[in-house]
Write a structure and sequence with these properties.
Layout lengths: L2 H24 L3 E2 L5 E2 L13 E3 L2 E4 L2 E5 L4 H9 L4 E9 L1 E2 L12 E9 L4 H22 L1 H6 L16 H8 L4 H6 L2
Parallel strand pairs: 1-6
Antiparallel strand pairs: 2-5, 3-7, 4-5, 6-8
Helix pairs in contact: 1-3
């Protein structure tokens, strides 16, 4: 990738992070910093079907610390302590089997937006994500049109409500490996 494209990509990435932070604050969320090392990490993982081959660990002053693979436990503790709406932009490292690279969906290192809403119904979460994505696309098109052009990309106009499907419905329609074909359908 040439320098002009790398700069355009970096500007858009920076814009997405800025928009994400502003959006969640405007929705009444409290931002927490991610936990990088902890004596505890995702209590459910890796699950038996996972391709994680190792959890990154270090020992410091006689205590074993793990790279946090999921903020789920930390989010639940924050909610239990009385915070009602929280979000974290969290870096993650997953030491997965090398074959996962071939899927195009799994990265060794990535960042995610992780959020929690105390006592929320799934419909409330869907509506929040519809607002987030619809407005994000407009923001990126308006503010970073030049950068999109440099990258040869065009963002569609999207509006909610989005169609919603259960995993069972998607498996029935597309088979067990439904993610890629479902994401390409219109």
């Amino acid at each position: 990738m040439d320098l002009e494209k790398r700069i355009a990509y970096s500007r858009i990435t920076s814009g997405v992070l800025r928009y994400t932070t502003d959006f969640f604050h405007s929705e009444g969320f409290v931002q927490l910093m991610p936990v990088i090392l902890s004596p505890i990490t995702d209590p459910l993982g890796p699950d038996p079907n996972s391709t994680v081959i190792k959890t990154g660990e270090i020992e410091y002053l006689g205590q074993k610390l793990s790279l946090t693979q999921s903020m789920i436990l930390h989010k639940q503790l924050a909610i239990k302590e009385g915070l009602k709406k929280i979000f974290i932009i969290s870096p993650n490292i997953r030491l997965e089997h090398p074959m996962r690279r071939e899927s195009g969906k799994h990265l060794f290192e990535f960042s995610q937006v992780d959020f929690e809403i105390a006592d929320a119904k799934k419909e409330e979460v869907f509506e929040l994500m519809e607002r987030f994505l619809s407005r994000l696309f407009v923001y990126i098109k308006d503010v970073y049109g030049k950068e999109l052009k440099i990258l040869g990309r065009e963002l569609p106009l999207i509006r909610g409500p989005f169609p919603k499907y259960s995993t069972h419905e998607l498996e029935e329609k597309y088979s067990k490996d439904w993610e890629s074909p479902a994401s390409k359908s219109t």
